[in-house]
């Protein structure tokens, strides 16, 4: 019923991931490992865990994650067979021993009521050798409210601590943003399909932040910026009815800020912002944006 999909590339922390799967108190899951043509062969390590939990390992001939992380996720998911629920677990993240057990213990509470289950999480800051506080969530919460808590830095969210229905995944898929930034945020809004997210607060997923993560390079920052522009435009044009006026304005401001981080607004972008500012009555922001535009045209 539950497939845990691991897109594999780096060996450094992979054993901790495998160990956390081996110690699950409930073995009703199958792991699918998709090797993205990694230069670091995991076969010896996988042999060590052979028989400790059920898994299939497949090595892809070409590296796809360097081109599109989303497409690598998708081809790894395609390795799964008839499981109805999916988790994509990073190859450097790991689980509490009762994550799978708590999924089944809570199953009757969320089945047919939600397409998306999330766990509490902690961040492992590898370079600082520290662990974050626990990130808990409301038991039931809309996906749009969940994102706004992340947006306002009251919470966090990433790929590994979610389980989603295969039916929702097949309906929507992952949106292929550059470097997959915001692809998970978009997925939770899409996959929820107007149903609330269900949270399991008694189990923890540990998400690692290390120098091996995608960070820092200017070309990556530019791709992140392009991703955020596209994602916030999606929120404004498709999901604004689910937000309060003050939230809508903050999202509009974020959209404009991301554009202006590297370039001036184009005319159609200014018109887009202007329309929603007028619609939601933030004339001060509209006036400020108009003045900035005029000054840009004069310079």
Automatic annotation (TrEMBL):
Keywords: Transferase. Residues 4-122 form the Glycosyltransferase 2-like domain. Pfam families: Glycos_transf_2. GO terms for molecular function: transferase activity. InterPro entries: Glyco_trans_2-like, Nucleotide-diphossugar_trans. It comes from the Bacteria. This is Glycosyltransferase family 2 protein. It comes from Flavobacterium sandaracinum.
């Amino acid at each position: 019923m539950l497939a845990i999909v691991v897109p594999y590339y780096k060996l450094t922390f992979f054993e901790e991931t495998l160990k956390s799967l081996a110690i699950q108190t409930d073995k009703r899951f199958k792991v699918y490992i998709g090797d993205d043509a990694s230069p670091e062969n995991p076969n010896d390590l996988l042999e060590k865990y052979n028989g400790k939990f059920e898994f299939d390992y497949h090595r892809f001939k070409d590296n796809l994650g360097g081109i599109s992380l989303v497409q690598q996720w998708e081809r790894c998911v395609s390795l799964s067979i008839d499981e109805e629920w999916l988790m994509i677990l990073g190859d450097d993240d790991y689980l509490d021993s009762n994550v799978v057990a708590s999924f089944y213990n809570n199953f009757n509470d969320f089945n047919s009521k939600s397409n998306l289950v999330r766990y509490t999480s902690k961040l492992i800051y590898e370079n600082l050798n520290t662990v974050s506080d626990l990130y808990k969530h409301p038991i039931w919460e809309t996906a749009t409210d969940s994102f706004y808590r992340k947006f306002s830095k009251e919470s966090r969210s990433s790929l590994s601590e979610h389980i989603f229905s295969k039916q929702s995944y097949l309906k929507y898929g992952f949106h292929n943003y550059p470097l997959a930034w915001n692809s998970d945020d978009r997925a939770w809004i899409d996959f929820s399909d107007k149903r609330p997210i269900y949270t399991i607060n008694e189990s923890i997923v540990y998400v690692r932040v290390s120098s091996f993560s995608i960070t820092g390079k200017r070309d990556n920052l530019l791709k992140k910026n392009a991703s955020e522009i596209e994602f916030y435009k999606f929120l404004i044009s498709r999901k604004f009815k689910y937000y309060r006026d003050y939230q809508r304005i903050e999202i509009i401001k974020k959209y404009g800020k991301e554009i202006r981080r590297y370039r001036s607004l184009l005319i159609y972008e200014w018109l887009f912002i202007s329309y929603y500012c007028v619609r939601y009555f933030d004339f001060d922001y509209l006036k400020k944006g108009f003045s900035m535009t005029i000054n840009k045209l004069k310079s």
